[in-house]
Fold this protein.
Amino acid sequence: MRSFIDEFAIGAFLLPAELEMLQSGIISKHVAKGQVLLKKGELYGKTYFVKQGCLRSYSVDEKGKEHIFMFAPEGWIISANESLLPNTPAELYIDAIEASEIEVFDREFMARFEESPTVPRPVFAKLVKRMAVLQRRIIMLMSATALERYQDFLATYPEMAQRVPQKMIASYLGITPEALSKIRRGLAKGHH
Amino acid sequence: MRSFIDEFAIGAFLLPAELEMLQSGIISKHVAKGQVLLKKGELYGKTYFVKQGCLRSYSVDEKGKEHIFMFAPEGWIISANESLLPNTPAELYIDAIEASEIEVFDREFMARFEESPTVPRPVFAKLVKRMAVLQRRIIMLMSATALERYQDFLATYPEMAQRVPQKMIASYLGITPEALSKIRRGLAKGHH
DNA sequence: CGTGGAGTTGAATACGATCAACACCGGTGG
DNA sequence: CCACCGGTGTTGATCGTATTCAACTCCACG
């Protein structure tokens, strides 16, 4: 169960004193399944690193329907506004879909992070990788059918299909649970 | 017509010698309307800064249909794989939809950039802002109708609606030109 | 001029949403 | 231990939105 500091090799960029100060801004905690960590509109949107378990971020539209923006299993970072900017209200909800061990980067931590005139490359690299994921998702949403998106999801995140309930996969794919059920039926039939 | 160096105040982070070296890796050039700058699959995907004019990046699906990933008017940076990683094949096409003045960051520039253990905060901040744009787009694609997405596009990029042909807006919204035409008719009728 | 791309319109179609009903567990409490 | 319950997933009927295909207009540009 690696910590954020381990995962990003942040230590290598800092003096021991700086490292300790940074660590003091990171709070480890346990969250129960279903626990809501952040609600849309909250200020000082915290950022979370998942050591164990799985979080998700999602929006809720006018009709009360949830749309999952991302899943965050072990090793992932998740925040409520993809902008890590301070004082901007969260755009998403975040909750735990499994009992999880997480690290919380609080307001002071983010502020300290903001002050630095440069950003460690591993952090930048992680962001860049995530951009690629989002880009791919947009292209898929624009050009692929629900079936194709589901197959792509299975190929890209085989483990998630086991871990999360089907209705959440549907929510992530941008379709209804009923539609996903029918797609799966079609796959089962057509396969032999 | 600001340059990349101006726009991101990169100069403030560097010694004069470093700055000059950096500038030597940036090539200014003029591209004609319709000119293709980068094709999907090319290695060493270059990155472009738009001083004047407008570029776009897009994918082409199996049926030959184009899907516009982003427009890049003045002051924007655009690249073919959102990952600025070296040696990864471009995932998108890039071309000029207007005659444009651009700055090209070539392979050496990117390599030099990659070597640095840290990233200037303005560059990071720009990336973070773009993430927020992509996040919003994904939520819209999943939860909003074509009409809502069009209205959101008009509100968010009022100038683009004037500059680019309608079929490209449709392509950006993830719908067909016919569908957009009908949506516009509906708006015109319903409005008085 | 005339030609081709852009936009519009209409008819037929397809894909996914909605609504409603039901089967299938996995608890929880009697 | 069993009965009940709520949540998850399935199925079918119907509806709506956007696609596809084809025809036509209108310019911009050669």
About this structure: The first strand of chain B starts at residue 26 and ends at 31. Chain B is about 45% helix and 25% strand.
